[in-house]
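Sequence only, no structure available. Ideas?
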Amino acid sequence: MPKPHRLLPLFAAIVAATLLIVLLASPATLAAQHPYRVLDRWKLGGDGGWDYLLVDSPAHRLYLTRGNHVDAVDTRSGKLIGSIGGLHGTHGVALDTAGKFGYISDGGGNAIVVFDRATLATVATVPAGANPDSIVFDPATQSVWAFNGRSKDVTVLDAATNKVTATIPLPGKPEFAVTDGKGLIYDNIEDLNEIVRLDARSLKLTATWTLAECDGPSGLALDNAGERLFSVCDSKKMAVTDAKNGKPFATASIGSGPDAAGWDAADKLAFASCGEGILSVIDASAPGYPTIESLPTQAGARTMAYDPATDRIYLVSADFGPRPEPTAANLRPRPPIIPGSFTVLIVGR
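Reply:
I predicted one. Tokens follow.
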């Protein structure tokens, strides 16, 4: 039998090898050992549909666009704080960096609605293009960018004056947009399978790039440090693009019917929320961008918001009735939403 003192070098070698394996493992590999799951569901109810949602981490708020109003929900309790009403068909929300004002793309009203984040009171309604959809606040220029789906352009608002400073034509129908915080803004062009880059300082479109293997790009996320863009596509694909020159990095597999994307910079994970009821998790630190998790969520949960402060993902959906039969006037009818069933899903590890 070996003497105890002779076992010590062997034990030390085993410990050292184990530590080396842990240190060499990618953050996403380690994260995959603790997969995401649905932690909670907040049944908020209310009538009507929804579109984008946005997390305000410092304020512990979640903003939900709900047609003719926007709800603010406390992320610690899941309770409704209040609403911004009097709207006509909301799509997105953007927040300034000072913590004072928020901006709503009111598609049905063809307007950008400015609200006070402390009181949720509307302070200005500024005409935009036709059906403003995605909306972002650019910190470098302190400006608001509303991407107009029907007029195929972007309305730029000076946040200091609430005055429109430019209307920039786009090559096609814009979808989700992101900013790098340093004066560059990117937007998916859904009907042309493209992505565009805009300069917030010169107020010009500076690049248009084709998205390979991507049909109908909608949701978009940005890895600022790695200079990568993640576009989710109707073809059950996520296109990964070089944010510097538009060259394709890879195409990852995701679920069907996506509408939003997210990015976890700490673990190098990309997310796609898919209408079939799947949250796809992509390891962006590994060769080939493998899908490491396909989490069942809820049918219709195709929009999402990621909170890096808590590593929580928020998705929304509802219960649906039977889908109506197609007609000549409506070849793809949507199933009716069951009243009072609107729900927020909280996903985490």
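The mean pLDDT is 92.
Hope that gets you unstuck.
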